[in-house]
Input
Amino acid sequence: MRMRIRFAKEGKVRFVGHRDVARIWERGLRRVGLPVAYSQGFSPRPRLHFGLALPTGYESTAEYLDVDLEPVEPQVDPESLAEPLTAALPVGMTVLAASELAPGSESLQQAVTSCTWRIVVGGTQADVEAAVTRVWSSPEVWLRRQRKGRETTDDVRPSIVDLRVEEPGTHEAELEAELRTQPRGLRPSELIAVLGDRVEERRVRRTHQWIQHDGERRDVLRRESPDVRAGL
Output
């Protein structure tokens, strides 16, 4: 049996790196006594499969983990695990949902095609809106970045699925952006770079990871409607 878990990573725990998050999950799963399957060989490891790594310092309400479980009786009920798993994790890591995966389901790395981000930025509302209008209306948006030790210049406009400025509710401007993850993803920090010097990244939160399901965009676990939006 393979189980998929959606969890949040918020507050101080956002500064914990991806590898340490994996160790935290190993300990948490042991604490609740789940029958996690292990790899074979000289040094067996729990069979945990993480999705797209979240940059250190970013928050998220849409992190995912697949866990392989040994067959046991009675069978584990994923929907009952949110509370005990959250209690076994550090403050700021919260299990939001869990579900059994159908046999043959694609891995998270293969399945996710885009992510939605909420980005609080520095800059006046007028400057942010002007930068977004310029990028969103441009047929090409060029970005210099490093790839395998070499500098490349890429047109990243196809990687921007959606980009909008939220209605001002505080003294800070806020963006919502959907960015592709395939064939080569665009990171929020790279999006901010192409918006120009008048826009500065402040806080970032991943709110959704999307897959294509029966020809439509769907949330990885909840099968939510594409227009579901979460606040920062």
About this structure: The radius of gyration is 19 Å.
